[in-house]
Amino acid sequence: MTVEIHVAVGVIIDGRGRILIARRRDDLHQGGLWEFPGGKVENGESVTEALTRELQEELGIAVGETEPLLDVGHDYGDRHVLLDVHRVLHWEGQPRGVEGQPLAWVLPSALDDFQFPEANVPIAERLQMEATRG
């Protein structure tokens, strides 16, 4: 039986055009790979509520305004994920790896230097495309 997982994902871009990515813990599904931060949408939660909660828990930031960027569906065989990706337009606080996870601020052109779960690849491609268009 395939598990369905709805995930709220945040794309956080600093004033220098760098994108925040985090490395997944080794003991998690797709562990050791880099990802755009976020987490599961819980029952009764909106995507915005989930994103706000997850980014507070994982990064210690307070999310302000967000806007939808794209949706990505991906089947890993044992689970199907729907990534509901939002661009985080405003936040308060300095992102840090609250759970001990390494973080990196990366220019879009350098995203290819990091290994992502397959479901995150369309996000990286979209951000690289937007960066080349200026």
What is this structure's SSE topology?
Layout: E1 3-12, E2 19-23, E3 34-35, E4 38-40, H1 47-59, E5 62-63, E6 66-75, E7 79-88, E8 91-92, E9 103-106, H2 121-133
Parallel strand pairs: 1-7
Antiparallel strand pairs: 1-4, 2-3, 2-9, 5-8, 6-7
| Major sheet summary line | 4 strands, mixed
CATH homologous superfamily descriptor: Nucleoside Triphosphate Pyrophosphohydrolase
Kindly name the structural category.
alpha+beta
Q: Kindly estimate the percentage of residues that lie in beta strands according to DSSP.
A: 35-45%
How many structural domains are formed by the residues? 1
Helix content: 10-25%
Rg over C-alpha atoms, rounded to the nearest angstrom: 14 Å
CATH topology-level fold name: Nucleoside Triphosphate Pyrophosphohydrolase
CATH class, anyone?
Answer: Alpha Beta
Distance between the termini: 44 Å
Low-pLDDT stretches are none
The total of helices stands at 2
- Placed side by side, the strands forming the largest sheet appear as 4-1-7-6
- By CATH, the architecture is named Alpha-Beta Complex
What's the shape? globular
- How many β-strand stretches? 9
Mean pLDDT: 93
Order of helices and strands: EEEEHEEEEEH
